[in-house]
Design a protein that fits this description.
The complex is a heterodimer of chains A (about 260) and B (about 325). Chain A contains twelve helices and two strands, in the order ααββαααααααααα. With about 260 residues, chain A is mainly alpha-helical. The two termini of chain A are about 35 Å apart. Chain B has twelve helices and 13 strands. Chain B is globular. Classes of the chains: A mainly alpha (about 260), B alpha/beta (about 325).
């Protein structure tokens, strides 16, 4: 464990060194991200300029939800973004090098890249949440803060697991990118109150691809709109099942990995 | 050190017909094609041996190496490397082995070379003392200090291969797999590379498994060779044995001053069976092929020079390349 932590820190340091060498790349990445985020917020503001209340959700609550949504997503994006590259690594036979080193291969994939642009997501999330909190009747106790942190962590694990499941499909399917992006985009439903969608979509994002546990359900729990214990338990169950499934699938993928000819 | 028993690996491919219609048909009902890349392979390798593993392209060399290193899971059969089943316990196996794939680097492309070494030092938990000692040795043998600070992507192929070999040896592995370590190198760089491999084997008793198309590598480095063809092992033995078995063929070529007109019974003159020699005449070029076990180069040369005026001559002994080509062709040894 200490060994892995040490390697993690070393890789992070290497990554930062490389980042400093390619400053322009970083600025472009961060800039385009800000534009995407600004348009998202503008969209919500426009909707609420017309409708003051959406299915029982006020503008401030929507802002809280939108801001909260960015946090688990940003955390996952920051730490495990390299999982996206698994299918292309498989195709080019680059999984070989992970299998030749005495460290867990998935760990190696993950530490290879830190997506610093994700700080943009996290910053926007924090700003929006901080803006919304004083306007909402939420009583913040140490317990609620701890609960919020646990929810964020669990939420980002849901992202990571789903990403790993779809990436592992790349061991059997040449181009798994469409599957990955489609499923990842379903997460966008979680930016808005799930209850505004048809029942089918609600069931899909709660039980099948449990993105509702990423932000909608935790946010309602934090805003005292629902029972937080139930949501916490549900969230833990969803994360456990999903991450177990994801890791098993990844291992199965490695076992059937065919490498490439020379 | 390495035990391989009845090892096989099959790959499944889906064959599709040509053209759009074929693709559509294939989409619905693709033909499943199973290819056996490695077929019932058995051998064992002792500590400190340097083994040449050779075969034509697609014979199954890389597939074997990938099973030994734990990258691929065998379809059937057993492999143990220093008592470890590679694909089952990759992490232990990875500590025991060093791997160099000539066509792809294991180094970090964008970083100065020295950074790759410090990362590997952490990954393999090499102590400071061992690290300093080995880096000094690598520089003596592989001369890596001159480009240690350059980013890997700026290194020449020869430099990069030297760096890759050093990197694979940093944790002092018991076994070193070299998959075409001299591919693309110039004559000098090849020589240096072979020297380095020899020295490493001598100083650390490292077991070396070498795949190559360059038969000079084999002659310089290996006491024993394994030849694989179509996934099957067709030869396992000393290099010298194969040379005595196939290497006694010899050919002497003469350039004659005047064309050969009259019939001369060469076999009779040399006192051998006419079927044991081959004679080809092309204008003024005469070639005599024979087996050195029945006839000496001296006899052949003397006989020809006694009867003809010769302006030039050359002697060609069978090299290992020709032997291997012959074995590939015949499919057995």
């Amino acid at each position: 464990m200490k060994h892995y932590l040490n390697i993690y820190v070393k890789f992070l340091a290497q990554h930062l060194k490389r980042m400093l060498q390619y400053r322009a790349d970083f600025l472009i990445g961060a800039g385009s991200f800000l534009v995407i985020q600004a348009s998202g917020i503008l969209f919500i503001a426009l909707v609420f300029a017309q409708i003051p209340d959406l299915n029982g959700w006020s503008l401030d609550e929507m802002i809280f939800l939108y801001g909260y949504f960015q946090l688990p997503r940003g955390l996952d994006h920051l730490l495990t973004d390299n999982i996206w590259l698994i299918p292309s690594r498989v195709r080019r036979g680059d999984i070989d090098r992970y299998l030749l080193r005495p460290i867990n291969p998935l760990f190696q994939v993950i530490v290879e890249r830190f997506q610093i642009e994700a700080f943009g997501e996290l910053a926007i999330g924090i700003i929006l949440v901080a803006y919304a909190i004083p306007r909402l009747a939420i009583v913040w106790t140490p317990i609620t803060i701890l609960l919020a942190l646990v929810f964020i962590l669990l939420g980002s694990l849901i992202y990571t697991s789903i990403k790993l499941i779809t990436a592992s499909i790349g061991f059997w399917v040449i181009n798994s990118m469409p599957i990955m992006t489609t499923i990842y985009n379903i997460a966008d439903f979680s930016k808005y109150p799930t209850t505004i969608f048809p029942k089918l979509v609600q069931a899909l994002v709660t039980y099948f691809i449990p993105f509702a546990f990423v932000s909608f359900l935790p946010a309602t729990a934090l805003m005292n709109k629902a029972d937080s214990t139930g949501i916490l338990v549900g969230s833990i169950v969803a994360v456990s099942l999903l991450s177990l499934l994801a890791y098993r699938l990844w291992l199965k993928g490695l076992a059937s990995y065919q490498s490439v000819g020379n | 050190m390495i035990e391989v028993r009845h090892l096989s690996k099959s790959f499944v491919k889906y064959e599709k017909e040509k053209g759009l219609w074929g693709m559509i048909k294939g989409f619905v009902n693709a033909k499943k094609v199973i290819t056996k890349a490695v077929d019932d392979l058995s051998f064992s390798i002792a500590k400190g041996e340097v083994i040449g593993y050779i075969g034509a392209n697609g014979a199954g060399k890389s597939t074997t190496i990938k099973m030994l290193t734990g990258i691929l899971t065998p379809s059937s059969g057993e492999v143990t490397v220093d008592g470890v089943i590679p694909y089952k316990d990759r992490i232990t196996n990875a500590r025991n082995i060093g791997v160099v794939f000539g066509q792809r680097t294991q180094l970090w492309w964008d970083l100065p070379l020295i950074e790759s070494f410090t990362i590997l030092k952490d990954i393999y938990q090499v102590s400071d003392a061992d690290y300093t000692e080995r880096m000094t040795l690598f520089n003596e043998i592989l001369h890596i200090n001159e480009f240690l600070k350059s980013p890997v992507r700026t290194l020449s192929l020869g430099q990069r291969m030297r760096a890759d070999i050093a990197a694979s040896l940093l944790h002092n592995p018991k076994i070193l797999y070299l998959d075409e370590p001299t591919i693309g190198l110039d004559v000098n760089a090849k020589k240096n590379m072979r020297e380095a491999i020899k020295k490493m084997n001598a100083s650390f008793q490292t077991t070396v498994i070498l795949t190559t198309h360059d038969l000079d590598d084999i002659e310089e480095l290996c006491q024993r060779i394994l030849i694989i063809d179509a996934g099957k092992l067709i030869y396992d033995g000393a290099l010298s044995d194969i040379k005595t078995k196939y290497g006694s063929d010899c050919k002497v070529s003469f350039v004659l001053k005047e064309p050969w007109k009259d019939f001369v019974d060469l076999a009779k003159m040399m006192d051998v069976d006419p079927l044991s020699i081959t004679v080809t005449l092309n204008d003024d070029k005469l070639e005599i092929g024979f087996d050195k076990r029945n006839l000496s180069v001296a006899t052949v040369t003397a006989t020809i020079m006694k009867h003809f005026e010769v302006s030039d001559l050359s002697i060609q002994e069978t090299d290992i390349e020709a032997i291997v080509a012959r074995i590939y062709r015949e499919g057995h040894a």
